[in-house]
Write a structure and sequence with these properties.
mainly alpha, extended, about 0% strand, 5 helices
């Protein structure tokens, strides 16, 4: 296991995401992506609730850690989703959405 871990540690994230996707298949990973997105929504709700209503630093630390883990899970799954649609122009769509939002912000500030 240590040797395999060393090999994986030398791989970039895109390669690891491809290996995971190829191991489980697109349909299975789409289902996991749905689950992870739902878990992220729940983690955001718990974070907001704890941050706004709790004076317990331990609880805030716990929900913050959980939120970070769920964000990471969704990032891993979206990496795999992106690999499922290599000709979908995702980077161009993301770029356009970011530019459009910046245009909205500029319009709001004037």
């Amino acid at each position: 296991k240590d040797e395999a871990r060393q090999v994986y540690d030398m791989m970039d994230y895109a390669t690891l995401a491809r290996l995971i996707l190829d191991s489980y298949g697109a349909d299975a990973q789409m289902g996991i992506a749905q689950e992870e997105c739902a878990e992220l929504i729940q983690a955001i709700s718990k974070y907001k609730r704890a941050y706004n209503y709790a004076n317990d630093p331990i609880k805030i630390r716990e929900v913050t850690q959980n939120l970070l883990e769920e964000i990471a899970d969704v990032i891993v799954m979206t990496m795999q989703l992106k690999l499922m649609f290599p000709n979908g122009g995702i980077d161009d769509i993301v770029s356009e959405k970011l530019r459009r939002q910046m245009g909205r912000i500029a319009h709001e500030n004037h």
